C-alpha cells in the first residue's frame, strides 16, 4: 500500500492503482502474510505452490489467505491447468499498488481511527516480517553453500526539526527516489548475478506532540478506546 504519486508502474501490464474503499477489504490486506502474497502476485502470475516456494512456506498455509484475497477482489485467477487429477489455479494481483480511499482514514470517528491503525499495521508488520524472513533465508542459503556476496540493509529512524520549505523539498526528493526505484525494476528473468529483489518501505511525516494541557485528556481517550 502506498502513495499513488510515487511514479509509474513497474509492471505495465497491470493497472497502477487499485483503491480500497471498504473496511472489510482493508482488514483483509492488513494481514502481513497476505501483503507478501499480494506482492508475489504483482511481479508475475503464480500458483499457490509457486508463491509458497518463494515465501518458504507450505502451500497448505496459503490456501485460506489466497481465498480471502480473491474474495475481496485483490487478486484474480488468470489461468488454470490440470496437475494429475487436480486443477491448479494461477493467480495475479489486480494492480501494481494498493491505495486506501482517503475517507476511510480519519481520526474523526472511532472507525476511522481503527482504519488508520489497520493500515499502518499492514505496512509496518509486513516489512518487519519480510526483513526477518529475508535475513533467516539468506543465513540458511549460506549454510547450504551459496556464494557470499556483499549487500547492504538500511534500517533507521530519524527525527529532526526542519523548516517547512526544506521538509517539502525532502518529501519531493523521496517521492522522486521511489519513482526511480519503480522505474528501475526489471523482470524476474534477469540472472541472479545481474539483479536481485529489494524492498523499500518509507514513512516520512510531520511529528506532533500533545500540548501539555491536552496530554492527560488524550491519554484518557486512548485508555477508553482500548477498554472499548
Give the helices and strands, then pairings.
Elements: E1 17-20, H1 23-29, H2 32-43, E2 46-47, H3 48-55, H4 63-71, E3 75-83, E4 86-93, E5 97-100, H5 110-143, H6 164-184, H7 212-227
Parallel strand pairs: 1-5
Antiparallel strand pairs: 2-4, 3-4
Portion of residues in beta strands equals 5-15%
Q: Describe the sheet with the most strands.
A: 3 strands, antiparallel
Counted by DSSP, the helix tally is 7
N-to-C span: 28 Å
Average of the residue pLDDT scores: 84
As a percent range, the share of helical residues equals 40-55%
Provide the succession of SSEs: EHHEHHEEEHHH
| Major sheet: arrangement of strands | 2-4-3
CATH class: Mainly Alpha
Oligomer: single chain
- State the total count of DSSP E strands: 5
How would the global form be characterised?
Answer: globular
Radius of gyration: 20 Å
Describe this structure in words.
The chain is of the alpha+beta class and 228 residues long. The protein has a single domain (4-227), classed as Orthogonal Bundle (Arc Repressor Mutant, subunit A). The chain has helices at residues 23-29, 32-43, 48-55, 63-71, 110-143, 164-184, 212-227, and strands spanning 17-20, 46-47, 75-83, 86-93, 97-100. The strands form two sheets. Strands 2-4-3 form a three-stranded antiparallel β-sheet. The radius of gyration is 20 Å and the shape is globular.
